[in-house]
Amino acid sequence: MAKRKKSGSSAAQPKIQGYIAGAGEVVEENIASTLQENFMPYAMSIILSRAIPEIDGFKPSHRKLLYTMYKMGLLGAARTKSANIVGQTMKLNPHGDAAIYDTMVRLSRGYEALLHPFVDSKGNFGKFYSRDMAWAASRYTEAKLDPICNELFNDIDKDTVDFVDNYDNTLKEPTLLPAAFPSVLVNANTGIAVGMASSICSFNLEEVCRTTIGLLKDPDFDIMSTLIAPDFTGGAQIIYDKQAIENVYRTGRGSIRLRARYSYDKYANCIDVLSIPQTTTVEAVIEKIIDLVKQGKIREIADIRDETGIDGLKITIDLKRSTNPDKLMQKLYKMTPLEDTFSCNFNVLIAGTPRVLGVRELLNEWSAFRIECVKRRTYFDLHKKQDRLHLLRGLEKILLDIDKAIRIIRSTEEESMVVPNLMEGFGIDEVQAEYVAEIKLRHLNREYILKHTNDISQLEKDIAELEAILGSNRKIKAIIIKELENIIKKYAQPRRSMIIYADDIVEDEVEEDVPDYPVNLFFTKEGYFKKITPLSLRMGGEQKLKEGDEVIERIETTNNCELVFFSDRQQAYKAKAPQFADTKASVLGDYIPSKLGFDEGENAVYMVPTKDYTGFVFFFFENGKAAKVSMEAYATKTNRKKLTGAYSDKDKLAAILFAPDDDTEILLRSSSGRRLIFKASSLTTKTSRATQGVALMKLTKGHRLISAQIYTEGMLADPSRYRAKNLPAMGQFPGADEAGEQISF
Fold first, then answer.
1. Domain holding 307: CATH number?
2. Domain CATH code at residue 83
3. C-alpha–C-alpha distance, residues 745 and 706, integer Å
């Protein structure tokens, strides 16, 4: 409930000029009611009146602009200044001249954003594929309606759609345009409302019309037989994934992969990018490539420049010697917007309600809308012909005695009595009598009357035909089909987007050109990692560690290796050594759980560097069991970063070790102090990562396996004492001569 606090009595307020009653009051209101009363109407206005297109394929701003141009006579006429069009449109659209002109630019032929532009433009209208190319001001450019707009406005004056008042009730404007083809799918349309959005990709006009014809003839028509894939105005290549396309067609949601088209000029040793995905711009592509070159991730490019001109888009990439252009483009597809996805969200207003529809449902809704338009047009024509026939019936009766009609008119003293006297004299109604009375004197001859009454038989045939159309949905559909076929003949154009099948694309693993040099890898008990070059290690001092931390692994390898980190939650995380910067002994290093995005509370316990995934990983559990797993089990064809089920979760982990081959010996120690040495080859390799392993060390009650390490000569005075002939084994206590030995585990 709203609570009102007053700062003072209104009676005490001085009566001064300009005083506002209630000023100074503080009002507390419920946030829920404020949102409902203020925000919700705004949100609904954005959804219904601005951002989401309707079944005719237009948002209100598009419709107001095109209808204004139609009423200005710009369909089939000469162009006029864009500023003139913008000014006239403001009678329907009060959002300002800049917003109106922006709308016109995006519908224009010069901007090239639509497969079938609705505005025939002259002058600089910018380009959709350029972020920085600004269009000229409206006073410099000219425009008119494109011929395809005939199919939008044809029969609009025959009551095919409803009209409403404009914002100040001085003009009428259509709620929809009676589009004779499914423009909602032919031209791309995007919009962001409050809490929802719309993103409709464009399709080839002929394919859309053929699909619509198929659905009108057969509701179960296979739409994929005619509507192959979207068609984007920028061209580019569509990576055809049948399952993804079917999902978009069925649900109205999904994504479509696009990639740029290019050609290689071997004489100039350069790549010319001739089209880019609809979702990016020339500037964004060039900036990303330059950034990659500066970072050293791409080394094959000598220069890049924008050569877009009168012939269209063109990005030229000069190559260094011996560069393979196809492999370079594979790398650019992976690392730049030259390959991108178009996200589809076919959200359309149907009878004032936003609905996400698949292609079949969308075309069915358009067909229902178009059927209603044709019915209303037919009903309008029928009434016009019926009215005309009614008038000619009265004219026909005058043919029997023209002299009588003249006599009645001459003998009538008052003008107001002419129509009643004609009605009485010939037995006709008031409408017919008015028509006869308005005939000019020069037309009161037999030739004129016979000429007009001969139309009666033709009108009767036309009326019968129109009534038959109104009574048959099949005939209405036949009319729509004929109109669509004519539109195909007049406006069809070849596909712009080339289709390539995903299965035909050979995507070699693109290896980054990273320098390979010796490095020392350090991994600590607390999960910190350092990569240090030998030179830096020689120059550096003592390793900097957190209090209580210690280095548990130090490995010499090279920079071009992969790293597998095992966590305490049976997961493995993969990374590449070049992802980590070279550092010094005097820094803590990278905290692996944070660097690789571990789950909350998860810790790194062991690291394995590898180049070819050879060797074995041993998992030792406190119950004395051990599992031997080949490193190949952690190699993946795809670039996966995280592997679940890296080892068994049946018992608590005691230790992890990596052994390069089967000749390695491993030393175990239990909490009772017993030691056991066994050879790696004595354990069978398991194919499953999550295997529980086999019993390896027998433990007395209350004791557990606590450590494992690779055994090297010299670690023990008498290693043969601890080598077991058969497994599992309990191991041996240290001898008297080894009691004082300090072995690091």
1. 3.30.1360.40
2. 3.90.199.10
3. 9
Asked if 621 and 693 touch (Cβ cutoff 8 Å), the reply is: yes
Question: For the segment 452-496, what is each residue's pLDDT rounded down to a tens digit?
Answer: 778 888 899 999 999 999 999 999 999 999 999 999 999 999 999
70: left (phi over 0), alpha (psi -120 to 50) or beta: alpha
Residue 648: inside a domain, yes or no? yes
418, 389 Cβ separation under 8 angstroms: no
Taking residue 60's Cβ as centre, other Cβ atoms within 10 Å add up to 19
For residues 588 and 659, state if they share a domain.
yes
Q: How far apart are CA 307 and CA 270, in angstroms?
A: 13
Arithmetic mean of pLDDT, 378-390: 94
Domain presence at residue 216: no
Q: Given this model, what pLDDT does residue 509 score?
A: 53
What residues are labeled active site? 140
- Work out the average pLDDT over 18-44: 74
The structural domain count of the chain equals: 5
State how far the Cα of 590 lies from the Cα of 608, in Å rounded to an integer: 16
Domain encompassing residue 656:
518-738
- The CATH number linked to 441 is 1.10.268.10
The tokens describing 469, both together, are: 């159309």
Q: What is the CATH number of the domain that holds 635?
A: 2.120.10.90
Residues 130 and 265 in one domain: no
Give the distance, in angstroms, between the CA of residue 117 and the centroid of all CA atoms in the same chain. 22
Residues 486 and 629 in one domain: no
My answer on whether 558 and 653 are in the same domain is yes
| C-alpha distance from residue 318 to each of 269, 334, 510, 512 (Å) | 6, 19, 20, 19
SS3 label, residue 662: coil
Residue for token pair 């410099």: 140
Does residue 373 sit in the same domain as residue 303? no
Domain assignment present for residue 353? The answer is: no
Neighbour tally for 673: CB within 10 Å: 12
Beta carbons of 379 and 291 less than 8 angstroms apart: no
Q: Are residues 282 and 421 in the same domain?
A: no
Residue 329 lies in a domain: yes
- The structure tokens 């992802």 sit at 579
- Any idea of the CA torsion for 555, 556, 560, 566, to the nearest 10 degrees? -10
Provide the pLDDT for residue 498: 92
Give the per-residue pLDDT at 11. 47
The full DSSP string for 253-301 is EEEEEEE-EEEEETTTTEEEEEE--TT--HHHHHHHHHHHHHHTS--SE
Predicted confidence (pLDDT) per residue in 339-356, tens digit: 999 999 999 999 888 999
Task: List the strands of the sheet with 119-122, edge to edge.
Answer: 80-81, 142-145, 119-122
* Percentages of the chain per state (helix, strand, coil), in multiples of 5: 35, 25, 40
